[in-house]
Amino acid sequence: MTGKVMVRGEHVARETLAKLLFTHGVRFKTDVTGQISLLVHGDLSGQGVTDMTFELSKKLLNVLNQDSHGHHVCVISSAGLTALMDGGEARCFHEHLVELARRSRQAT
Ligand SMILES: [Zn+2]
User: Fold this and answer.
1) For ligand 1, a single-atom ion, which residues have Cβ within 5 Å?
2) How many other CB atoms sit within 10 Å of the CB of residue 28?
């Protein structure tokens, strides 16, 4: 997880969230490695992310690094996490982030 992660619109402390997710069968890790399959980005807001310019955090950069190794790490928003916990679906922002990173590299 990175940024301010919310569940059902409320900010939840990392520790609480880790325990909560564990009851959903999720194993929580604090670093992005080859074992990670999902990153929750608390600062991504729903669908409006296209116009958003945010700094690529260290965790996001690690996600992109994994991508260059052919390992797809799904990146979802807080809303996506809530949806998953309710048995629904979440949008994956992975490709969007790869595109953002490519554009920011071109700009410098
Ligand atoms: Zn994905």
Assistant:
1) 74, 92, 94
2) 13
